[in-house]
Amino acid sequence: MEWLASLFTVIGGVYGTWRFIKHRIHKESTSDQKQQTKDDFPCDVYALVGRFVEIYKAHGIERTQIPRFLGEDGGVVLADVSTDERLLHALSEKVLKCTCSKFGISREWLDGKDVPIYPRIWYDKNMKGFIDFLEGLKAEFDEVEFFAIKCEKDSLQKNKERFPIAFVCRGKLDHWGSLGEESIWRHYPLNDTLYWGYDRTRFQMKAMALVAWQFEIPMFGSELPQTDVEKIIQGEVFPGPYLENLFRGAWHLDDYIFANGESVCAKDVADAQKLYEVMKRLGWMDYLVKKTGSVPRSIFERSEVGVQSI
Questions:
Q1: Which of 261, 265, 270, 264 is nearest to 253 (CA)?
Q2: Is 229 exposed, middle or buried (0-12, 13-18, 19+ CB in 10 A)?
Q3: I need a labelling partner for 152 at 20 to 30 A (CA). Which of 11, 33, 59, 64 fits?
Q4: In 40-126, alpha helices (H)
Q5: Which phi-psi region, left, alpha or beta, contains residue 75 (left: φ > 0; alpha: ψ -120 to 50)?
Q6: How far is residue 116's CA from residue 84's CA, in Å, rounded to a whole number?
Q7: Which residues of the chain have pLDDT under 70?
Q8: What is the pLDDT of residues 254-306, one digit of tens each?
């Protein structure tokens, strides 16, 4: 019977070898199929997935938190964000539109076109439009903030320097954890190119600060390298990561909008007086008063000075 036992041993070895080879062939075939599935999608489609995740990351939302932010009806579950391939299949038109709408992102940018991240917003020579803009933000959000970001080299000298100053408004969308912690904001970078060293745009910036003050919107003055300031103005970067890490008291734009007796921090009192008269002459002051109520009586009691050329 020994020959029978040997026969079974041989058969068992052959069977084991056959199963091992079959398993390897199946595994390699499955791997090839997965790779082929991924290769079926062009690179720019996966680049869209990267930009989608980048939007959330730039607003303080990690990849694993995207389903939580979108909610149960958002169309994305935790398993969908485990790989780029699974996330790609979950990115319906509804999800993409919702993301762009919540954060104010240009859909063309998300699709891969060479355009700014945010739709362009500018109010140069249109202070009434800026007043309407801030009024709309106050109506939409419970909390609004206003940032003025100048270049580190900008010493705010008149009629000399030509360093652009960036402006970003933001409204609070949500927060993680306790109220006020890990806030999630929607950002509105303005595309105006404004210089402190140019009279007309300097008065425009001061008028913007006065409008924000009247709407009781907190103002912060920060500094960045010139290249970063210009990228924010051009809409080439997300401003959120910059704002979260900036020193907010590098300078104070609202110090430049008050005259004597109106603020202990008043700077450039003569220029401040001209500001109000310019706003009255151009109709900005009357429009602002209609929206926010009166400003200090001393403003209207000042005598006119020569500002017709501004």
A1: 265
A2: buried
A3: 59
A4: 43-58, 66-70, 84-90, 93-103, 107-111
A5: left
A6: 24
A7: 1-42, 177-181, 259-266, 296-310
A8: 888 876 555 546 677 778 888 888 999 999 999 999 999 887 644 444 434 33
